[in-house]
Amino acid sequence: MTAFLPSLDRGAGDNLQEQIVRQFITAITEGGLRPGQRLPSVRESAARWCVSRNTVVLAYERLEAEGYVEARSSSGTFVHRMPPGARRAITTPSAGLEAGESRRPRPARSSLDPAFVDDGQHRPLQAVPLSLGFGSNMPLYRAREWRRVVQRLLAPDGWRGGGQFQPNAGLPFLRETLARWLTARHGLPVDARQVIVVAGLQQAHSIIARALLRPDRSVMLEDPCYIGKRRLYEAFGEGVRPVPVDEHGINLHDTSFDGVGLAVVNPGCHVPLNVTLPLGRRRQFLAAARAAGTLVVEE
């Protein structure tokens, strides 16, 4: 476990939480804390740093929101396997080169997976272990137990006898479970009636576009973004206003919210650039959206 000890100045202008966050970011980006390294627990950190547990919790939550650490269930908090500094190195063409060094040309490679390229050589198929999904390596002999558990969960909603038509918003027990989780995880007073279970992002964006967009308002999308999302909003006949994304996420320089009814963003892990929007830019974005009366949808 890391022996990282922040140097806290209680007479400084910024509060202890800000100091802890800033020093953690410096240690992670400069290599003092390595990706995957486990961090002290909240209780241990509070005792070692002589601060309240709430200060540590808020600092860890902010570091997690900005992509520097990740919380793993029942395991603790760890330095993110690919923190923002590492992501910028991957997306920067000259990353890792010394001054004056040129990148050697690489041989051309097909963008297709070799398994789908017919090179005339037929290889024997390899056995693949059965997996029930969600990262599970549950062996086949437990499939019957898995089925019993699923049937017991679905029975209250009339699925034991082969199923009945269910509400379009999703199974009631699933929506209630999600509402309880959201309330406990984010402190939001979520009611099950506010939860809609969708088949995927395309369906979610279709519902959002139909429900929230007005004919005289445009939608703001990150540029670049998932092409299917952009085409969906264009198909609805709504004007799309792109907002550029750099190595720090959304860049609001010279960006206007005038006439924008809906802004769809992915601040946690942008696709396809894989960058995390820092807290400062998040606040700037929300302030601009609030001033313009723009609804914000976070993926």
UniProtKB/TrEMBL annotation:
Protein name: PLP-dependent aminotransferase family protein
Keywords assigned: Aminotransferase, DNA-binding, Pyridoxal phosphate, Transcription, Transcription regulation, Transferase
Domain of life: Bacteria
Signal peptide region: none
Organism this protein belongs to: Gluconacetobacter dulcium
Family annotation (PANTHER family): HTH-TYPE TRANSCRIPTIONAL REGULATORY PROTEIN GABR
A Pfam entry, by short name: Aminotran_1_2
Region annotated Disordered, chain positions: 79-118
Residue ranges annotated for the HTH gntR-type domain, each copy included: 14-82
GO molecular function, one term: DNA-binding transcription factor activity
Annotated PROSITE patterns: HTH_GNTR
InterPro entries: Aminotransferase_I/II_large (IPR004839), HTH_trans_reg/aminotransferase (IPR051446), PyrdxlP-dep_Trfase (IPR015424), PyrdxlP-dep_Trfase_major (IPR015421), Tscrpt_reg_HTH_GntR (IPR000524), WH-like_DNA-bd_sf (IPR036388), WH_DNA-bd_sf (IPR036390)
Stated family: In the C-terminal section; belongs to the class-I pyridoxal-phosphate-dependent aminotransferase family.
